[in-house]
Amino acid sequence: MMKTSNQSSSARCAGNITRAALSVAMLVLLPDSVRADVKLPAIFSDHAVLQRDMPVPVWGWAEPGEEVMVAIAGQMHKTKADDKGKWRVTLEPLSVGAPLKMVVAGNNRLERNDILVGEVWLCSGQSNMEWPVSLSTNADLEIPAANQPRIRLVRVKNPGTQETVDDFQGGWEVCTPDAVKGFSAVGYYFGRELEQQIDVPVGLIDNSWGGSACDAWICRERMEGNPLYEAQLANWDKIAAEYEKDKDPKKAEQLAGNHRPGNLYHGRLEPVLGYAIRGAIWYQGESNAGRAYQYREMFPLMIQSWREDWKQGDFPFYWVQLADFMDEKTEPGDSAWAELREAQTMTQDRLLNTGQAVIIDIGEGSDIHPRNKLEVANRLARWALAKNYGRHIECQSPRYASMEAKDGKVTLKFKDTGGGLRPVDDKNVLGFAVAGEDRKWHSAEAKVTGPDTVELSSKDVPNPVAVRYAWADNPVCNLYNQVGLPVTPFRTDDWPGVTVDAR
Fold first, then answer.
1. Residues 6 or more apart whose Cβ sits within 8 Å of residue 414
2. Total-model pTM
3. How many CB atoms lie within 10 A of CB 222?
4. Distance CA 187, CA 280 (A)
5. Measured between alpha carbons, how far is 120 from 178 in angstroms, rounded to an integer?
6. CA nearest 335: which of 287, 289, 370?
7. What's the number of CA atoms in the CB half-sphere (13 Å) around residue 7?
8. Is the per-residue pLDDT at 15 higher than 70?
9. Count of Cβ atoms closer than 10 Å to residue 15 Cβ
10. How many helices (H) and strands (E) does the chain have?
11. How far apart are CA 341 and CA 489, in angstroms?
C-alpha cells in the first residue's frame, strides 16, 4: 500500500512478508534526485519497540522538499520534508509478531532492524525512578536472570536546557544482565511484570533525573502568567541575569540543572515527545515537598501538558506516592511530606486515567532511596494490568470515604477495600489521630469494625471533629486491604498546612 501523509508541525512545548519485501525493493529503486541525507532520531534505532494497536508516528529530517518514503510490515508511506527539513509519517496500527525491518529512504537509505511491536511505557521522575537495578534489593539475584530478549531499554540523558531539543545520543538495547545493571529498577521490574503477564514485548523509555523538581518537567510557557509561579520564575530570571553579567560557573550549573522550569521538558522529554506509548509511570515529589500546596496545581499541569503535547489523548499516567522517610515521631503533628502525598492523591481525583501506588510501608527512615523497588514496581503494574490489560486484580489502595462523629467516637468508612480491611503486625490499628475544635492532635485508639469501617476514639478528645491517618513524614501505621495494599494516607480537615504559603 502507499499512503501520502500530511506534514504536521511539532509544537515547541509540545505483515505480509512478501509485501514487506516488495516495499523495501521499491525504496531501493528510488531516484537519486536529492542531495541531503535522510536522518532518524535516536528513538528509532535498532531493537526498538513500537506500540501495538495504535497509529505510530515516525519522523526525522531531510533536505527541505525532499521526498521521503518509509516502509515496514508491508506498509509504505510517502511524504516530503517541510521548509525546515522536517518530515513525519504515521504508520497504521501494527500487531505483535516477528521482528521487523524499517527502511527509510530519500537520497540515502536507512535500515532499522530487530524492531518489535508490543507495549511501550515511559519511566520518568527523579532519583527513585532513576535508581538502578544494581543498587536495588536482591540485585545479585535479579541481574543474572535479566536475559529478557522481549524487553527493550532506552535511556535519555540530555542536560537541562531552555531550548527545544529534538534528539539524544543513545538507542534501544535488548535487555541483558549488562544492559539492566544501570537501568531504572522500578522501570525494569514494572516492564518485566507486564511482559510475563500479557506475553508481548515491552519497551521502556527511561528519562528520569535524580533530584529533579516537577517544575523542570513543565514547559515554562505553561507556567507564565500564573500567580502561583510568579516568584519562582522571577527568581530564575534573576539567576539568569546575574550569570549573563558575571558568568559565574555555579550559576551556569544551576541554569542547566534539574530544577529550572522547562529544563527537563526540553532536555529529556522533547526528544521522545510523540513516540507512540501506552502510558507513563512516574516517581517524583521529594524535591517539591517543601511546596506541597503548590504541587496540587503543578503536578496536574505537568500531566495535562504532556498529554496535550503528545497528541495521543489522555494516556494512562501512574505514579508512586512518597514513601515513609525521616525519623518517626511519637506525637501527631504537621508534615510537609504528608501534604505532598495529599497533593498526589488529589491529582488522582482530578484527572482521568491516573493511578497512585501507595508505598507508605516500604520506605527507609534513614534513606530517601528505599531499595525495595520490586514491590514499588508491582504496585504500579497492578494499575496497568487492571486498567489497561483487562486483569481482574486489585490495584487501588483503600481510600477514605466518609466519617461520622457521635458520642465521642468516630466511625470512618472506606472505599476500594479489596475484600476488607485488616491491621498488620499488631492487633491494634495504628496511625490514626483525632482533634477537636481546638485543632490539637492526639493519637487515637482504633479498631476495624467491618470490611470497610474503622471506629476510633481518644480519651483526650471528647468531641472529635477531624481525623488524620498516616499523617507524618514517617508514620507508624498498619492498615491494609486483603491483598496487602496499604490504606492511603489522608486527613478529613482542611486546616492550613505548613507549606500553604510556600512558593
1. 398, 399, 400, 401, 421, 452, 453, 454, 487
2. 0.93
3. 19
4. 10
5. 21
6. 289
7. 18
8. no
9. 15
10. 11, 24
11. 7
Distance CA 4, CA 122 (A): 29
Name the residue type at position 149. P
How many degrees, rounded to 5, is the angle at CA 387 between CA 386 and CA 391?
Answer: 30
**What are 147-197's pLDDT values in tens digits?**
999 999 999 999 999 999 999 999 999 999 999 999 999 999 999 999 999
Give the separation between CA 262 and CA 232, rounded to whole angstroms.
12
pLDDT of res. 13: 56
Q: Which three cell numbers stand for residue 383?
A: 494499575
- How many Cβ atoms sit within 10 Å of the Cβ of residue 404? 11
Distance CA 411, CA 167 (A): 55
Distance CA 452, CA 400 (A): 10
Distance, CA of 281 to chain centre:
3
Distance, CA of 236 to CA of 88 (rounded, Å): 35
Neighbours of 138 (CB within 10 A): 13
- Edge-to-edge strand order for the sheet containing 441-443? 441-443, 432-435, 466-469, 490-491
Q: Which residues contact 61 (CB under 8 A, 6 or more apart)?
A: 38, 39, 81, 85, 86, 87
Q: Pick from 383, 392, 187: which is nearest to 283 by CA?
A: 187
Q: Which long-range contacts (CB under 8 A, 24 or more apart) does 438-443 make?
A: 439/466, 439/493, 439/495, 441/331, 441/332, 441/333, 441/468, 442/332, 443/331, 443/332
Q: How far apart are CA 267 and CA 256, in angstroms?
A: 10
Alpha carbon distances (Å) from 190 to 49, 374, 396, 410? 16, 8, 16, 39
Q: What is the pLDDT of the chain when averaged over all its residues?
A: 93
* DSSP, residue by residue, 295-363: HHHHHHHHHHHHHHHHTS-S--EEEEPPPP-S---SS----HHHHHHHHHHHHHHHSTTEEEE--TTS-
| 71 membership: H or E segment, kind and range | strand 67-72
Residue entry with cell 481525583: 349
Give strand ranges (E) for 459-501. Answer: 466-469, 479-480, 490-491
- Cα(319)–Cα(302) distance, rounded to whole angstroms? 13
pLDDT per residue as tens digits for the range 303-353? 999 999 999 999 999 999 999 999 999 899 999 999 999 999 999 999 999
Which amino acid type is present at position 255?
A: L
pLDDT value of position 1: 44
Alpha carbon distance 79, 68 (integer Å): 5
**pLDDT on residue 36:** 75
For residues 54 and 277, give the distance between their C-alpha atoms in angstroms, rounded to a whole number.
9
Query: Please, which residues have CB within 8 angstroms of residue 35's CB and are 6 or more apart in sequence?
Result: 63, 107
From the CA atom positions of the chain, what is the Rg in Å?
25
Whether the pLDDT of residue 281 is over 50: the answer is: yes
Phi, psi angles (nearest 5°) of residue 433 = -135, 150
